[in-house]
């Protein structure tokens, strides 16, 4: 099971924004190495030809809360419905911009991975609890 640092996605967003705005002297290669080609970073670096059509800082500040709200949770059907609705609304707000779409997709994939990891861990913990009770 892949272990993820709790703040990895937030740190990736901050580092990318620093790179984009020039506020942090960091290179693309350095970020790719630092985050070991993390899918969220690779999504931020993709479709950069579409990035010129959006206010990147504003888009990132609007997209990240979607991830932050649901991160590190075992998500049920109701949560997934809300995530899909929010993602669709964000994509529509940004006129289906390819860069925005890719960033949202990568964050939703990250939520899915985290949710599955938590559900597997909970199922494993429940199996261990049942085994110890039976003994």
Relevant terms:
disordered C terminus; 72% helix; single chain; 135 residues; mainly alpha
Structure summary:
With 135 residues, the chain is an all-alpha fold. 72% of the residues lie in helices and 0% in strands.
Written description of the protein model:
The protein is mostly helical and 135 residues long. The protein is 72% helix and 0% strand. The radius of gyration is 17 Å and the shape is globular. Residues 127-135 have low confidence and may be disordered.
What is this structure's SSE topology?
Layout: H1 8-21, H2 28-34, H3 39-45, H4 56-70, H5 77-93, H6 98-134
Q: Oligomeric form of this entry?
A: single chain
Mean pLDDT: 87
Tally of DSSP helical segments: 6
Shape: globular
Total E-strand runs:
0
Instruction: Please mark out the parts with pLDDT under 50 across 5 or more consecutive residues, or reply none.
Output: 127-135
The arrangement of helices and strands along the chain is HHHHHH
Helix content: over 70%
User: Which structural class do the helices and strands define?
Assistant: mainly alpha
The biggest beta sheet, please?
none
Overall radius of gyration? 17 Å
Euclidean distance between termini CA atoms: 28 Å
Strand-residue fraction?
Answer: under 5%
């Amino acid at each position: 099971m892949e272990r993820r640092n709790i703040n990895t996605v937030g740190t990736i967003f901050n580092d990318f924004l620093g790179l984009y705005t020039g506020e942090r002297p960091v290179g693309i290669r350095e970020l790719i190495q630092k985050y070991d080609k993390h899918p969220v970073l690779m999504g931020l670096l993709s479709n950069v030809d579409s990035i010129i059509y959006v206010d990147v800082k504003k888009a990132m500040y609007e997209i990240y809360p979607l991830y932050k709200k649901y991160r590190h949770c075992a998500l049920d059907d109701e949560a997934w419905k809300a995530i899909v609705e929010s993602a669709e609304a964000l994509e529509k707000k940004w006129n289906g911009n390819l860069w925005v779409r890719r960033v949202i997709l990568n964050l939703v994939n990250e939520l899915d991975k985290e949710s599955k990891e938590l559900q597997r861990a909970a199922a494993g913990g429940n199996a261990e609890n049942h085994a110890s009770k039976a003994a």
